[in-house]
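Hello forum,

I keep getting stuck at the same step: I have a sequence, I want structure tokens, and every attempt I make locally crashes halfway through. Rather than fight my setup again tonight, could one of you with a working pipeline run this one for me? It's a single chain of 280 residues.
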Amino acid sequence: MNLILQGLTTDRNAIDRIAALAHAERIVPIHANAFRCEGVQRSDEIKARVDAECLAAQLDYTFIDGTRKLADFKLVAMDMDSTLITIECIDEIADMQGLKPQVAEITEAAMRGEIEFRESLARRVALLKGLDASALQRVYDERLKLSLGAEKMLTAIQAAGLKTLLVSGGFTFFTDRMKARLGLDFTHSNVLEIENGKLTGRVTGVVVDADEKKATVERVCEELGISTKQAIVMGDGANDLKMMGISGLSVAFRAKPVVRAQADVALNFVGLDGVLPLLS
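Reply #2:
Ran it on my machine without issues. Output:
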């Protein structure tokens, strides 16, 4: 068992102290701010102590089988909003309508698992009725930014031959553009209905909720001829848990507590490229 410690900055004294808590046999630098503590012990008590120390030092930690490598995986599946990108697109669209607080409140409740996703989506999209469709392009141009480390992570996994899937409870307007911009292999998301240049307040077709996200990962894996255990799945909200649950490695990125608690990996401080030292 290895313990990977990483941060945006690191204090070697803190690394040494945390490694000692886990009775590491040796510490191997991966890069300037990531370290592999090899031959560690893992128990609930040790994990709790490591968790507290890492939080204080603003470090991410992962206990992981030392034999696991990036080559073991064939697919990386990602949520979009607040995972691959920094924003919740629907909240920013709503801001164009002066309704961001109302919509954001529903979004947060849904991501925490307090409201069923289909209901939350219908309620939020209904509030957008009548908004000029040009607002979507404004959100893309003015507000959409990739999450920290996203491009570095994608470059590395694509170079290693892994396929990529962007599966989102958001909208095709944005996932289509992300696919073209980043060279992604597969995307699946909701379709906003537009009539006469304005949003109708409805989505059309299959709703991409938690069950559909899971089914999409299964479909893409079947198409690629691989097991879902050969997929790395990244997300931040409760509607990502089902697809994360069938993966070989689940990654909670800047995630809600309910998601962090169930994921194999939680990245709270480093970027999306923080997955790479885990499998080096």
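The two ends are 14 Å apart (CA to CA). If your local run keeps crashing, start a new thread with the error log.
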